Amino acid sequence: MDFQKVIAFATRRGLFQPAFGAYGGLAGFLDYGPVGVKLRRRILEVWRRHYVIDAGCLELDGALIGPEVLFKASGHLGEFDDPLVNCDDCGKQFRADHLIEDGEEMARDKLANALSRTACPNCGAGLSEMTAFNLMFSTKVGAGKGLQGYLRPETAQSIFLAFPWLLRQNRGKLPFAVGQIGRSFRNEISARQGPLRMREFTAMEVEHFFLPDNEPQLSDDLSKVTITLLNSAGKEITCSVGEAHSDGTVNSSLVACHLARAQLFFTDIGVPKNKLRFRQHGSNEMAHYSSDCWDGEIDTSLGWVEVVGVAHRGDYDLSAHGNASSKEFRVAVPGTGKETEIWVPDIGKLGKEFKSDAKIILEAIKDIELQPGILVEVNGDKVELTSEYMSQKTERRSEMVYANVVEPAFGLDRILYCLLESSWKSDGEREWISLPQETSPYDLLVAPLMTKDNLDIKAHEIMKAATKINIDAYYDEAGSIGRRYARADEIGIFYSMTIDHQTLEDGTVTLRERDSKDQNRLSIDDALNKVRR
RNA sequence: GCAGGCGUGGUCUAGUCUGGUAUGACUAGGGGUUUCCAACCCCUCAACCUGGGUUCAAAUCCCGGCGCCUGCACCA
């Protein structure tokens, strides 16, 4: 199925459509409809099982709007801020910092200055004033002048800011991981290709924190996972994750863990193995925070589409917030607690002796290691502080470090698109979506063979029984039975149950499996138990 | 953002050059008939992206906007 077909299909069968269509549409925004919402929820359920239940991630649902200081600290205000210039003559637009040598390193006023001496690379005419384009949506918080705020461009910052709190929830122990499902916003210059490049999108992200010298190792289970890797040198290999880690293809053991987990997640939701690969970023496409990054990609009619990024972010974010905010974002390294004898000033004695100058002395020794005999300058004079003005105290201190983090970040909208493409089947007679039951939008079609002889009444009864045990079922009595099967197949309903005359006699129904079209006659209870997940 | 192409019921589409009641199919809904893989018959709902201009008259010609596609640029 190609892109145009997916879009038409999604509109026709209620998966998604462009948002705000009545007013001409707005690029980069989608509405998800009845079937789309179910499909999304199913994908998220599998994701939660993998990451929250199996991997034990703590969950967070952070605020969507953040204050300006946050994005200054995270680097998004600097790095998401693309300087643009237009040519006065031919109208072409350029990234200003790409026109000047080392422009990406330059301060903005220097860059503007350098640009004034630069000609349009296309036609040689002069360039316009530099304008900044920020990929973040900006907004005002509160009334009046308001506080400058931005819609978050990634869910991750919510987790980093909550790190000290979450660490306490984990009773202070590292490593631990936090998972979050939520929307993020980026004002893309050119939002195209529907679900693949959205201005408002849903991400599933994990931040896996660990002590720098104590990176989580690959488990036996994860190291056995087979995976296809394309390294930054362009070499493609298919091997076990364990091998890829031990031969150095994937340097970090935790990145390797998350590549394996991502592989398991994607194959579970129904992405064929041969359409899945992980590609290492070259150093020039790496994000501002990242030291090693692998993109999980799915092969589609539009080429390889990035659906997850697994990035080693080091301590970039925690140290940024640690430095910019008043909070402690570091953790004590266990086992490094040492007792040290330190000297502390005797403020009472200092006050009695030096009166108002005591303040100056205390200020002077605030940030230095206190020792008897130390010389302090007070109003131009050197004053010696003897042990008489201080006392010795035993202090227990640990080494403080920033936790490191490995982040897998999944784009739900893209995954959904790729899944539609890759699970689309056609055999000349029918076209259908062949997803595993877990990610099928409905578990069951309930269909009376006809609406006569009380078959529909019986079917409604069974429908009720099914929903009572949490089966997500769809009822359809319109048209021929074949037509109903076809309708159900098209949106990937996994089982179809048909109620016929024999049902009234002996309480059995036929249960049809979507992909094979095979039918079995079972008792109603057996059939429902089989369908129940 | 630039260049080119395009925009007609839910979907696909004819009509646009050459201005004059908008074509057909599929889907969907109602009814009939049939009853296990999109059968058939009747009926019904439903569209010219938007704003301006030209004209007696605009889906059609012209201009702007919005949207979609392709390429360039951009893409933490």
Features:
533 residues, alpha+beta, BirA Bifunctional Protein, domain 2, Herpes Virus-1, nine-stranded mixed beta sheet, five-stranded mixed beta sheet, 30 strands, 30% strand, RNA-binding
- CATH class descriptor of the largest domain: Alpha Beta
Coarse shape: globular
Model regions low in confidence, pLDDT < 50 over at least 5 residues? none
Q: Give the domain tally.
A: 4
Question: What structural class should be given to the helix and strand makeup?
Answer: alpha+beta
Helical amount = 25-40%
Largest sheet: 9 strands, mixed
The name of the CATH superfamily of the largest domain reads Bira Bifunctional Protein, Domain 2
What would you say the CATH architecture of the largest domain is? 2-Layer Sandwich
* Overall strand count: 30
CATH topology of the largest domain: BirA Bifunctional Protein, domain 2
Strand content: 25-35%
- For the termini, the CA-CA separation is 29 Å
Radius of gyration: 31 Å
Number of helices: 19
How confident is the prediction overall: mean pLDDT?
89
Oligomeric state as shown: single chain
Strand order of the largest sheet: 3-10-11-23-16-15-14-12-13
